[in-house]
Write a sequence for this structure.
């Protein structure tokens, strides 16, 4: 249908989630103020969900929303909602709630003796979400690519903000490549490569020859001493919990 | 169209001025009209290497400031009539140059000369940026040694980001790699980076490999560019580089250590 007015499409987004461990508005305000002060521009108008899983039943939803907006976040809704009463309450207040695909299993465990009907609702929901999760499994599919053709020279810095970085060429010693997603280098990596720069556990670094000064994924880094196993060979580097791992590419 | 060629390196002491002088004379000997400009304001050296230090009356900065005309400042080489030298000022510093006026001087020179060779100062500051800004081509002078290679890499990055061609989105500066002070013996012993190592790191086409040679120091001190010493290996290697710059295909020489002959082996030559 070429002249369709609209169409529905499923799209995944990476959203920041604020996990609350207290419902005390003043405490939340103090902590939030500290966090925002560390990087005022970074959070400006960033869409956020608020996770209330760890909180009890008495929550001032409106106050939380107002607080989040006070710090210039764009409030999207609540997540980690446990009971049907909460859902109803949230819906009545005109807010939305979102369930994270990964959290479903954990939620079934933590939810204490749910009502039979609620349990079946959760089960069917989790099944649906697991199917969805299979179709769109990895966070890395969310990033588009920034492609750099040619060598990245000493002293140059290339940052793929919110993207993967593809370098068709080598990265010289003293050069720095940074991406919020993965980094692919179709040449030698002799400089520094920092993947998952804004926090991304599953980011990876691929290169045709590993001769780097430093590689880092999600804040965990290696200096060249740690790369001797696969030095000057085609390698990809990934993260297991907090340990970097290198594996042969071919 | 005049070709504006910058001879640059990032690092100091690798042979920029020696190479500028040799290539300038080499091009002029082929019958091209060549001007050599010393961009190293405050550390004037090119005139010494060219042996014209006693003939400097006006300099580049005088021309920039309108205190002298180009013809007053240009020094004609006594050996090759098609070669001229525009010396740097020894009493000023790099801030004496500005883009606009340098551009005007280069425009004027382009009307008269086929090749404008800009001998860049070391470093990555204003002086070096000024020398490379208007370039069409660059000769990246590098020693087979890690710090020189890294500095060259840095300056190649500058060529592709800070030049006029980069700013206007024109074709990028054509890069040539000139490896100087190359010692095949030390490469064989693993003490020095090989041509292949440097080519792989810098990924720039090779223009020439100049062997480490006693002739270079002698040439510098006597003001007779080494290319005029046709007996020397360095002189011949510069000649080859000039031919390649003019589009000829020339095999690379002086890349392997000379095998000791039987007599020198016996007599410990």
């Amino acid at each position: 249908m070429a002249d369709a007015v609209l169409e529905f499409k499923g799209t995944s987004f990476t959203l920041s989630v604020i996990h609350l461990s207290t419902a005390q508005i003043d405490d939340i305000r103090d902590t939030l103020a500290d966090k925002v002060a560390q990087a005022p521009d970074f959070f400006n108008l960033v869409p956020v969900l608020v996770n209330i899983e760890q909180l009890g039943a008495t929550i001032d939803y409106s106050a939380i929303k107002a607080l989040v907006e006070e710090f210039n976040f764009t409030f999207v809704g609540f997540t980690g909602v446990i009971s049907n009463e909460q859902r109803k309450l949230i819906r009545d207040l005109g807010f939305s709630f979102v369930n994270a695909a990964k959290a479903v299993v954990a939620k079934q465990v933590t939810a204490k003796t749910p009502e039979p009907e609620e349990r079946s609702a959760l089960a069917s929901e989790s099944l649906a979400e697991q199917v969805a999760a299979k179709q769109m499994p990895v966070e890395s599919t969310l990033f588009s690519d920034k492609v750099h053709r040619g060598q990245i020279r000493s002293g140059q810095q290339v940052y793929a903000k919110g993207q993967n970085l593809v370098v068709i060429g080598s990265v010289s010693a003293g050069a720095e490549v940074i991406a919020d997603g993965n980094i692919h280098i179709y040449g030698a990596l002799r400089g520094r490569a920092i993947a998952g720069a804004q926090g991304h556990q599953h980011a990876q670094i691929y290169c045709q020859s590993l001769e780097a000064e430093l590689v880092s994924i999600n804040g965990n880094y290696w200096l060249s001493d740690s790369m001797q196993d696969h030095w000057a060979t085609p390698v990809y580097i990934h993260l297991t919990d907090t340990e970097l791992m290198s594996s042969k590419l071919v | 169209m005049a070709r504006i060629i910058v001879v640059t390196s990032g690092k100091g002491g690798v042979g920029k001025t020696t190479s500028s002088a040799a290539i300038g004379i080499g091009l002029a000997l082929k019958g091209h009209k060549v001007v050599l400009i010393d961009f190293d304001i405050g550390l004037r050296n090119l005139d010494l290497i060219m042996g014209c230090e006693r003939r400097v009356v006006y300099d580049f900065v005088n021309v920039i400031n309108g205190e002298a005309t180009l013809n007053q400042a240009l020094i004609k080489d006594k050996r090759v009539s098609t070669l001229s030298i525009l010396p740097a000022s020894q009493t000023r510093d790099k801030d004496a140059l500005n883009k606009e006026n340098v551009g005007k001087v280069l425009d004027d020179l382009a009307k008269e000369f086929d090749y404008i060779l800009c001998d860049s100062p070391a470093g990555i500051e204003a002086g070096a940026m000024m020398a490379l800004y208007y370039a069409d081509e660059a000769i990246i002078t590098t020693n087979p040694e890690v710090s020189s290679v890294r500095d060259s890499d840095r300056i190649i990055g500058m060529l592709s980001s800070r030049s006029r061609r980069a700013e206007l989105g024109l074709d990028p500066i054509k890069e040539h790699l000139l490896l100087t002070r190359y010692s095949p013996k030390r490469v064989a012993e693993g003490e020095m980076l090989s041509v292949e190592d440097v080519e792989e790191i810098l990924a720039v086409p090779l223009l020439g490999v100049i062997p480490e040679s006693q002739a270079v120091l002698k040439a510098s001190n006597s003001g007779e560019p080494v290319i005029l010493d046709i007996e020397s290996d360095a002189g011949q290697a510069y000649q080859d580089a000039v031919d390649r710059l003019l589009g000829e295909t020339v095999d690379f020489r002086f890349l392997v250590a000379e095998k000791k002959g039987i007599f020198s082996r016996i007599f410990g030559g």
Residues 103-138 of chain A have pLDDT under 50 and may be disordered. Chain A touches chain B through 15 residues (CB under 8 Å). The helical segments of chain A are 25-38, 61-70, 84-92, 103-110, 116-135.
